[in-house]
């Protein structure tokens, strides 16, 4: 079944980056400050959208061996393919986060930026992340933080949109990761304009 978020992003792909320019600039800047990529690694961007993060990584000469851009929206993915067509180390995948079909222990790092609140089955998505990571691998999640004043903002958003919205608080997100076999490495909470955010870096429990 097609998800509301997939349909919505197919419709708005053309105007996505222009409309959300300041928001994307802010969240991508924070994300890039807190991730690490080592020589020869295989990476997965679970919800890559138009490929903006991948473009930024190539501009920074990130030393990855392979980067897989996945997104459930075919239209968003087409934008990414056109934008990054000249990068042989980047491949593309059109799957939902809850049904990723890759070999187990395939990725060194998994990125999830501005997308976790759209996932309809978040526990299943995290279980997939766990199975896809190599020993010592890391997952990085930056998303909305349903706490403080943003609880009201989030409620307004859920009333206004037809998309699936399932925003977690920072504490709830940590609990979910713990339950799915992850150990927190680096965490951050902050506010920007009327948004609350969290960033979490986690690894597989040993």
UniProtKB/TrEMBL annotation:
Residues 44-137 form the Methyltransferase domain. Keywords: Methyltransferase, Transferase. One of its GO terms (molecular function) is methyltransferase activity. InterPro entries: Methyltransf_25, Methyltransf_Superfamily, SAM-dependent_MTases_sf. The keyword Methyltransferase applies. GO terms for biological process: methylation. The keyword Transferase applies. SUPFAM superfamilies: S-adenosyl-L-methionine-dependent methyltransferases (SSF53335). It comes from the Bacteria. This is Class I SAM-dependent methyltransferase. The lineage of its organism: Bacteria, Pseudomonadati, Balneolota, Balneolia, Balneolales.
